[in-house]
Write a structure and sequence with these properties.
Layout: E1 13-17, E2 20-24, E3 35-38, E4 55-56, H1 60-70, E5 77-82, E6 87-92, H2 104-116, E7 123-128, E8 134-138, H3 146-162, E9 171-176, H4 189-192, H5 219-233, E10 239-244, E11 257-262, H6 266-274, H7 279-290, H8 295-307, H9 332-342, H10 348-353, E12 356-357, E13 377-384, E14 387-396, E15 399-407, H11 413-426
Parallel strand pairs: 4-6, 8-9, 9-10
Antiparallel strand pairs: 1-2, 2-3, 5-6, 5-15, 7-8, 7-11, 12-13, 13-14, 14-15
Helix pairs in contact: 1-11, 2-6, 2-7, 3-5, 6-7, 7-8
Length: 435
């Protein structure tokens, strides 16, 4: 069971980061549609510049203190932390592959940001094909709602009335992925029935989640019925059919589109994945970045990208984009090194700004309150049964620390993790004199 994914908060919230200001309006169906207000001082080129080689320069005193925190369950913990010079101040069991839970999203969002850039948006559009049939195409917009279905129906109904090129009787084709690609094969049957394990379809109402906290396991029929009903309310009886779309995502958009909807900007999408741990969003990011609506192919593409970063990837196995799969494997060494590499990416401010903040925002809003970590740690939590993970960027008096912690220890895990992070923050200057 995944207890990490929070429902997106409905209240308005704004925050500033690196001359960026972002706001979440109250009335967004999923709280996704943050508004871009200002963008200054960012480079929009892609690619990761070379960085110094990662080195093993661990801190004995820090290691001793952390060993005392996790004793006698040392083998159940992996802890890695890199300073801004690429030096490990601790790397305890850092090469042991473990299940990362939702920390997997840090890999997915980094990959998506690098491949898609900041201007990418999920698009849903309708066009009239050569046979006069209206085709509706999407690529997984997680914020598509019933309100949007009404707008789509209104536009199609208007075209049916005025456009003579539309077939008679009128037809609508919904382009959708095959059923076998709706879920990663490694997701459990129980998880697939919950809102956090909803099917990953190209056309989805409210990310295929239901008001009762369950997933809509037959979402395309729901979409078809909803669109048919809305068309009927506009005086049109239309045959709505489902047509299988290719696994490869088609970037070509027909010129004669009669309807088009763009999702919120990339930072908003990344924030939904990282700040609120929204599984559906992470999965569609994985597919759009790779160009394949197929978990196996998109996971392979992501793995190839991680390999290109020249970071430790011992035991790395990518089975989905969200971390719900227990087949995923990574090490804390890999995650901390990824964060370090991304810190030199031209779009790094977007990456860091998409994360939760200790004691302030997202899945870490209630974490580490009234501690030195509050407001000074940005990261991603991860929770599966028997597994707790947290990775991110820790601000210390000596600079940024890129840290990853994965635990299979069920005894006071939250308190121990807080102690670990506080000690890493305190000993960030090791082996120099403590501040």
């Amino acid at each position: 069971m995944n207890s990490d994914q929070d429902n997106v908060r409905k209240q308005a919230e704004c925050f500033n980061y690196n001359n960026l200001k972002f706001c979440m309006p109250k009335n967004s169906p999923l709280g996704l549609s943050f508004a871009f207000v200002a963008i200054f001082g960012l480079f929009f080129s892609r690619g990761i510049k070379p960085r110094p080689t990662l080195t093993e320069s661990t801190c004995p005193e820090l290691t001793r203190r952390i060993n005392s925190i996790i004793y006698p369950n040392r083998n159940k913990w992996s802890i890695s932390a890199l300073n801004s010079d690429g030096e490990y101040i601790i790397n305890l069991n850092g090469k042991v592959p473990r299940v990362p839970a939702s920390n997997q999203k840090l890999i997915t969002t980094a990959y998506a940001l690098d491949k898609l850039g900041t201007g990418y948006q999920f698009q849903t559009y309708a066009y009239i094909n050569r046979r006069g049939i209206v085709e509706l195409v999407g690529n997984g917009d997680p914020d598509l709602s019933q309100i949007d279905i009404r707008k789509i129906a209104k536009r199609i109904a208007s075209e049916i009335k005025t456009n003579k090129s539309i077939s008679n009787p009128p037809k609508v084709l919904l382009r959708e992925a095959t059923f076998s690609n709706w879920w990663p094969s490694s997701w459990s049957l129980d998880d697939r029935t919950e809102y956090y394990g909803a099917p990953i379809t190209k056309l989805a109402i409210s990310s295929n989640s239901l008001p009762n906290g369950k997933s809509n396991v037959n979402p395309i029929n729901t979409f078809r019925r909803s669109l048919s009903n809305e068309l009927f309310l506009h005086g049109q009886v239309v045959e709505v059919q489902i047509k299988e779309s290719p696994i490869r995502i088609n970037r070509y958009k027909p010129r004669k589109r009669i309807y088009e909807r763009n999702s919120a900007p990339m930072l908003s999408i990344l924030s939904l994945a990282n700040t609120t741990s929204h599984n559906f969003t992470a999965e569609v990011l994985l597919r759009n970045a790779s160009g394949y609506w197929d978990t196996e192919k998109s996971s392979k593409k992501t793995l190839e990208w991680v390999k290109s970063l020249n970071i430790p990837i011992h035991g790395l196995r990518i089975s989905d984009g969200s971390g719900l799969s227990r087949a995923n494997r990574t090490t804390t060494q890999t995650l901390s090194a990824l964060l370090f590499r991304m810190s030199n990416h031209p779009l790094y401010p977007y990456y860091e700004a998409s994360m939760a903040i200790a004691g302030r925002r997202g899945t870490m809003r209630s974490f580490y309150l009234s501690t030195p970590l509050e407001g000074r740690f940005r990261g991603k939590t991860g929770t599966l049964e028997g597994i707790r993970a947290v990775s991110g960027i820790l601000n210390s008096n000596t600079g940024k620390i890129f840290v990853s912690v994965i635990s299979y220890d069920n005894e006071r895990t939250y308190a121990k993790t807080a102690d670990i992070l506080i000690n890493i923050q305190r000993y960030s200057s090791c082996p120099s004199k403590l501040f």
